[in-house]
């Protein structure tokens, strides 16, 4: 049997496990530690096949950091995405009969009004449609003529929301991401050169040493954040780059810079697909191909520039001179909701365009072939990068310790540099100590001081726990989104992440309870010895960490900060009620009697009480008066307890919450909807369970394609259609 601190493990279990909870906590803690200390676990990847295959690598794909860009052509056809609405019992088509192609070396923009399905299409192509029982996805998506589920190519997905650790500089962000994702670049010089090249390529040199920043502290600009997102995604040398509305929220200059970067990446051999709402003229001119979407259907797909204008002019829609083509196209495919008449006419126009395109797509003319040999096969990241990549890069993640070291460094930078948050926490700790100290000013040894002391120790336990809990749930859901993204890339495992987080936050997390104790202790004149003061601070520090760990669990359980803010304090209220002061468990129904054993407030209160009351003498007049601190402890059923019990219990609780966080993060990792192969390409399939609850006529299509008045000129355009699509390979 393994010895632990001079004791046998089984003996410790017996010691801890006086209660059932003790044994369960030991069991989960041991399995947690076993898991955490075991060899690095495989990267966690989303549950879809495409992602799995990307993660596992294949013959075609290079290992991370390989630097070579394998040219990838993406084709998709008959893609339908339906959403079932239980309340109205209708099915809505978010995407209807989508087909298209994206080729290496070209920048494809998906344009359309808000809600037209741009992000949904991008997600389908990236295999990242969030799984939902109400969603159904059918169609074919191929990467280099292999079904997406079987192909293996590396792709990057730059999402609308840029998420970073706000206290790191641009260079530090990239450097740490490089170390985590490309552990085989071991020399610091090589890594620096690699990062410098990325900074140069993405136009981030001028802000390389600026902190990313957040809402509290201004950092780099929105455009620079977007380019930093791109730089982080480029580390893995992706063949395909998806960018969801990369210009949203940026001014015209920044938007242009971002689009210039994407254009450059396309010219370097990547297949670049971005969604964009309504670009200005100079941005539009950078697109090689465009897809126009309206209400989930295709209105145009093919080359950009003049071609769409020529195409629509055949239906009588001429783009006036000096009008931004992107604005003209956006207006053409939008429904005008300003009046009933405008809705009618614009819908008729849009339906006609959709109908015309769906007819012409069945006769697609493949006018050009992309010769992949003409494309640069290395994405221009400099000779050093090529040099680095010529080495066989086999390993995907660093060792457990390397991951731990890097994550610890990052967590420490984030925690120690966050001056605004730390200042607020310090002020709050001191302010609450002053308030409590003023209320319980210089307590004496009278009989009434027994109650005062108990009250003060209880509010101290509650205040410490609430402060730590709210701080954690305020920031963790956002951090979790970053961690989910990084883990999906296979950068690291959960064990080193959680461990490094705990360790990095120890010194700073301990500072605030210490400040609180230093101010409160003399003000309230608690048990006046240095040793008791040390124990007081130790107990509340430990409680603060246990409450933080509980905050992590709440943050991992619910999707947003708002939800966490609702759940966390409610859960804590239960522990407050059973905190040792308000309710005596022996008087509560038997089903609640276990709660005090898991209440971090109760354990803190118990420890603080023992620390305070042991050895105290009280003034007394009557025989029933409390004479000693020990008698006071007896009244609260703490007579036989020791401070050691608190220490053990708080550690047990902390481990329990960390373990639960681990499980929840594993369980709640993003899951994606698989793409079903349609039985009949012409008809979208609807999940059987949806059909069971539907009348056929209740299937609503958005938009109703083909209900067009044949007398109207644009919709009647017939045999002379220009096949707007340029697809590779067919003749
Ligand atoms: N998981 C989902 N559940 C419910 N509705 C959804 C879901 N995904 C997409 N939708 C709906 O599908 C439509 C298309 O959404 P999508 O985000 O693809 O549009 P978009 O063109 O990217 O819009 P925007 O330009 O405003 O970002 C929207 O009406 C959206 O509400």
Automatic annotation (TrEMBL):
Return the GO cellular component terms, semicolon-separated. Answer: membrane
Q: Which residues form the ABC transporter domain?
A: 74-320
Q: What is its main location?
A: membrane
Start and end residues of each stretch annotated as Disordered: 705-731
Regions annotated as coiled coil = none
Can you say what this protein is called?
Answer: ATP-binding cassette
Q: Which PANTHER family match?
A: ABC TRANSPORTER G FAMILY (PTHR48041:SF41), ABC TRANSPORTER G FAMILY MEMBER 28 (PTHR48041)
Record localization: Membrane
Q: Name one GO molecular function term.
A: ATP binding
Q: Which Pfam families match?
A: ABC2_membrane, ABC2_membrane_7, ABC_tran
User: Which ranges does the record mark as transmembrane?
Assistant: 12-34, 497-521, 533-557, 563-583
User: Membrane topology for this entry?
Assistant: Multi-pass membrane protein
What UniProt keywords are attached to this protein's entry?
A: ATP-binding, Membrane, Nucleotide-binding, Transmembrane, Transmembrane helix, Transport
Any keyword Transport? Answer: yes
The species is: Vigna unguiculata
